[in-house]
Amino acid sequence: MTAFPHVLITGATGQLGSALTDRLAERCHRLSLCALEEDKLADQAARVTRQHDIAVTATALDVRDEAALNEWIRSSDAEMPIDLAIMNAGIGGQVGPGAMIESPDRSAALVDANLNGVLHTLHAVLPQMLARGRGHLVVVSSLSAVIGYDRAPVYAATKAALRVLCLSLRPSLSARGIGLTLACPGFLDSPMQDGHHPWRPFSLSPQAAADAIVTAAGKRRAQTHFPLTMAALVRTLALMPLPLREAIYRRLSSGGANRSTPKPKGAPTGAP
Ligand SMILES: NC(=O)c1ccc[n+]([C@@H]2O[C@H](COP(=O)([O-])OP(=O)(O)OC[C@H]3O[C@@H](n4cnc5c(N)ncnc54)[C@H](OP(=O)(O)O)[C@@H]3O)[C@@H](O)[C@H]2O)c1
To answer: Could you tell me the residue ranges of all domains in the chain?
Structure first.
């Protein structure tokens, strides 16, 4: 018997979302997927349906659209109760050369997609789970939520907000039978850009990241930080006095800046 018969994933077509879809398709009966781009989503649903004998519904929608998200989640739950909801949709990217913070427009977009998108999903999925007294939630944050990230400050702030949201919610949710796993990935592998690999220390494949998340959810863990080496480094930095931490961080980060290739502004990935 599978632990999560019906799994819902937002941002299902991205690098992590696709890997999560593949992993979970092996062990569930129904997948409800959403992302922005309809064609990519339809291709993904067709591929999963070809490879696995499960029901897949794919709905193109924007997680910033509270009403659309609410309707999608309620109708998915009516088809079959949602056992696991993975809040993975998000946008990233780094600040351009010479900039210290994301532009006002980009900052608003980051807050809307990364934070409000998760809030809308939670508000829609929780009432049914609470009524049943069971269900599991996964919120995809980032290692940047632990100590910040100077090349994507607003992105890191949205991920830190998710982290604190999870820490605040977990005790009362678990008292009502609902599990919650906070997932904090480090850098995921990124394709070569202009003949160079961007500097992404200890990066790991989306498949390895998906495995870590699925394992943590299956074991009902409160949180998972990975990859281990990067997570240990970040957590050690977090324990240090701020001036020392900042000095080490500046050193590591400036070493990386010399090796990295600037990312196009607004590119979807790039921040951990
Ligand atoms: N990549 C990393 O190094 C890294 C590290 C740590 C944490 N993370 C987090 O992991 C998650 C997935 O990242 P990723 O690298 O897989 O990103 P990605 O490849 O850019 O995929 C993002 C996914 O989210 C969807 N999406 C974006 N905005 C949306 C919106 N407003 N409404 C609905 N769907 C939306 C995209 O759909 P479309 O393709 O249709 O636009 C896509 O399916 C994100 O939350 C990210 O912050 C990533």
So the answer is: 6-259
Query: Can you tell me the distance from the alpha carbon of 120 to that of 11, in angstroms, rounded to the nearest whole number?
Result: 14
Q: How far is residue 205 from each of residues 3, 47, 261, measured CA to CA in Å? A: 25, 20, 19
> How many angstroms separate the alpha carbon of residue 226 from the centre of ligand 1?
17
Q: How far is the CA of 187 from the centre of ligand 1 (A)?
A: 13
CB count in 10 Å sphere of residue 264: 11
Ligand 1 lined by 93 (C-beta under 6 Å): no
- Indicate whether residue 182 lines ligand 1 (CB < 6 A): no
Cα 88 to ligand 1 centre (Å): 6
CA distances from 142 to 41, 159, 163, 269 (A): 24, 6, 8, 12
CATH class of 6-259: alpha beta
- What confidence tens digit (pLDDT) does each residue in 95-133 have? 988 999 999 999 999 999 999 999 999 999 999 999 999
pTM for this predicted structure: 0.94
Q: In what order do the strands lie in the sheet with 178-185?
A: 55-60, 30-35, 6-10, 84-87, 135-140, 178-185, 223-226
Rg of the chain in Å (alpha carbons): 18
- Where the chain has pLDDT below 70, the residues are 1, 192-197, 255-270
